[in-house]
Amino acid sequence: MFTYYRPLSFLLCVLLSTTGLWAQQTAASFFEAGITKSKSGDFMGALQAFSMAIGANPENAPSYYNRGLAKANLKDHRGAILDYDRAIELNAKDALAYLSRGVSKSKQDDHRAALMDFSRAIELAPDDAQAYYFRGVSRSRLEQYRGALQDFSKTIEIDPNHIQALYARGITKQKLDDFAGSLADFAKVIELNPKRAQAYAGRGASLVQLAQYQKAIDDLNKALELAPEDGESFYNRGFAKSKLEDYKGSMSDYDRAIALEASHYRAFYGRGFSRGKIGDQRGAILDYTTAIEINNDNLTETKVVYNGKITRNVLDGLRNAVQQRNVIAPLSNDRSEAFFNRAISKSKVNDIKGATADLNKAIELNPTYSEAYFTRGLLRSQQGDQKGAILDCNSALQLDPKYAEVYYVRGLIRHSLGDENGGCLDLSKSGELGYTPSYKAISDYCN
């Protein structure tokens, strides 16, 4: 009796083939789960599912693209851009990936880069109305109004009832001083959606510029009926009323504009003019003075350390909300864990000096103690030493690159010091690693 043995190389090929098939099936199931969660609005769940799909098959462009969409829906546009980059690297002909990356770049005010992405999307899909629309928006942001006008017109040529493009073209015509031409665009928007307050407000503003003050007031009345908190419409209506010498009526509108936007210096100026017309010169002087001082580039600005949106007080609140991974650990021979936990206790009774000394000792005894670096970084941040805190966070991440809370805290600190891009990328990484409070911070401070 003979026994036949297959060569080891054959068995290895079978094993690799089976493993590869399993990985593809697993990636597909995670991908479908991500699509389902996205459709139901569970973008955090979708993000996690697409991450699992990428782990099983890291060469699948749609997984990166859809994870980018999930991040974008969580307002993590920096993180989304990184995923779109990878999707495009794997499939350079995907027009939607360029379009979506352009949208996320525009959300970060990187309009020049967004414009390039929209142009590439148009090359790949020349009949996509949205690509022209978004490129027009980016051109408008860059004050390239004639180019924007062409893009909005192309959008409308492809989709004649594209309300956003019609409205945007009307606004762009105003920027080009074509107030008469803007009227037709606003009128079309109103025809398509009679409840769109911005269209009445836009047409009213154009009518003011065309010196048709009563018609302007009629439109602005409708705009404020639909959107009673629109300070700019109150201002424009006040201006129209003052042109018709209804100074008391204009003052009421200017009052409302100022109540809604305390820095509306044009409203202070207009109210000062109306006050002067009814004999209140002291009041007029006060308003003119305020108009001069608000948003005046000639005023010197006070230098501040915290020059991001996250101020010192905000930083303290967000950072202190971090749940430290302070769970009991076996005591090693060097007893660094005892120093670490004693530091935690000392910090809770506000013995910051003693806590810092214990953390220093824990790190001296165990230079790979990532939690000790992180906790010392938190204490340094609380004491105002933000640069020292960042150094400790860097050390913690070198030791544990998946320490999500450290990315979160480092992101907050970097943002508070004015490094908005670096801070928001850290917050994005923290969220990607599963620390969900990062997405609240991203929503509040990165968009």
What is the name of the CATH superfamily of the domain at 312-445?
A: Tetratricopeptide repeat domain
Given as residue ranges, the uncertain stretches (5+ residues, pLDDT < 50) are 1-16, 298-307
Strand content: under 5%
- Overall average pLDDT: 87
Distance separating the two termini:
76 Å
| Rg from Cα | 29 Å
Q: Please count the helical segments.
A: 24
The percentage helix is over 70%
Corresponding CATH architecture of the domain at 312-445: Alpha Horseshoe
State the CATH topology of the domain at 312-445: Serine Threonine Protein Phosphatase 5, Tetratricopeptide repeat
> What is the CATH class designation of the domain at 312-445?
Mainly Alpha
Order of helices and strands: HHHHHHHHHHHHHHHHHHHHHHHH
Count of individual beta strands: 0
What best-fitting shape do the alpha-carbon axes yield? flat
Sheet of most strands: none
Going by helix content, strand content and strand pairing, the class is: mainly alpha
Signal peptide: 1-23
Keywords: Repeat, Signal, TPR repeat
InterPro entries: TPR-like_helical_dom_sf, TPR_rpt, Ycf3
Protein name: Tetratricopeptide repeat protein
